[in-house]
Please model this.
Amino acid sequence: MKTYLDCLPCFLSQALKASRIATADEKMQREVMDQVMEQLIRLPLDASPPQIARMVYGTIRTVSGNRDPFSAIKQKQNELALDFYPEMKAMVRDSDDPLLLAVKLAIAGNIIDMAIQREIIDIREEVLSIVSSPLVVNDYAVLRKSLTDAKQLLYLGDNAGEIVFDRILIEELTTMGTPRIVFAVRDEPIINDATCDDARAVDLDRHAEIMSSGSGAPATVLSECSSEFVHLFRKADMIIAKGQGNYESLSDEGENLFFLLTVKCPVVARHLGLQVGDRVLKSNRGSSKS
Amino acid sequence: MKTYLDCLPCFLSQALKASRIATADEKMQREVMDQVMEQLIRLPLDASPPQIARMVYGTIRTVSGNRDPFSAIKQKQNELALDFYPEMKAMVRDSDDPLLLAVKLAIAGNIIDMAIQREIIDIREEVLSIVSSPLVVNDYAVLRKSLTDAKQLLYLGDNAGEIVFDRILIEELTTMGTPRIVFAVRDEPIINDATCDDARAVDLDRHAEIMSSGSGAPATVLSECSSEFVHLFRKADMIIAKGQGNYESLSDEGENLFFLLTVKCPVVARHLGLQVGDRVLKSNRGSSKS
Model:
């Protein structure tokens, strides 16, 4: 997915929000804004939004000197989600279709996202509401069928906190007998995206192999990923990609991709033909709105 | 009121929205965005937001070659409001306190604003809801008292459409015997702000003298206004200023000012100690929240 004009004010807005998290110094915040605008002027928009976001957040890091502004927020998000873990496990256990419930939880977990503008007051309440309502795009039957043959499954993670929800789904996949599951994370801290440290902090390494994508973009920009990662990406039978960033960077890739996400911005909504807030399980083979 | 960092992404967002109204040419829209960012970089923020907005909307005009992109929208807004005029007059006539109701209608009319992000689906419904709820800042008693002595009243208009609501209040002031009322408008088209032509289109000239402020800013930036206007501004017994723009540009001026507005953005909300959506009748003498 390319970048749209609508993304430019959004990048600037994100830059302000993140620079306020990175530093209390208003002069530095202003310097971030100025440098970001300098970068955006006449910037070709054929890159995907996460490629530009990487530059924006890199500027915040450089100007503020704060390498990981979202560190405390990520820790908090992981803790909040872990608190909710036992209840989620019980929900899956008691469900008529544990895999479907685990998928819905993984999509619901995608709301834990600092890049968007709104605050999550009560994660638990919102998650329960999402799980009890239908997916707007629902390729569950295709996903379920693909799983029966999948020997190598690559799971592309997204945010801290959300990865606890992913753990639930991965545990379910393990129970179903998927032979090899690799959970991919960002190579270095960016926004509240999960890194190796985060994956280990929520014990994901007990259930999957953890692998860095080799890139620090808040997405999976293949041209920036390590050859080891790209090799796995090409040979995996099945890829589950979480969140908008992974959709933005991979929407033009193969048919073995499944996108699990909550639509968070009008640009992605338009690209998908959906509304902001819609929950999506989309096979890249082509899917139908429910 | 000075400009805040939060205003920068908002200017860029407004520039995109307005440039799409001004032209269908995406290259021109991008050129607007680039030029606006060039202007905003390292721009001192001690000017008020409307001074910067004037520059932004001037860029849209220059790049698109469209002198008045909002012309059709303004005409539509005037027509919509005129359709609602008889019902508003009946509401005022049947009210226990016609002046208070006319004041509330004038504040409600401030929702007809293209500079904000949301769309007004049904003006009538929203207006009725506003009129039936209390003002969050309510200096009506001070306003009422000031009116008894006022010989020259200057009324600073804001948007097209909204001026029909202002007409209701001005007719009420005339009925109460205010000797001279001057209704001030922008000197040239900017966003959907009312000009002399708009004021005449809704027959405001039957009830007040129409005067241009001499400035094309979407507000009352005194340093840019004509000497004739500033003279009147200084000698008026009482000034009613409509909308956020006039508040942003005049909040540091005299005690004879009354601001009638709906709070539309988080920055103005913070400056006033209020919430977005709050309705305000504020005396510049100092006021109390109700």
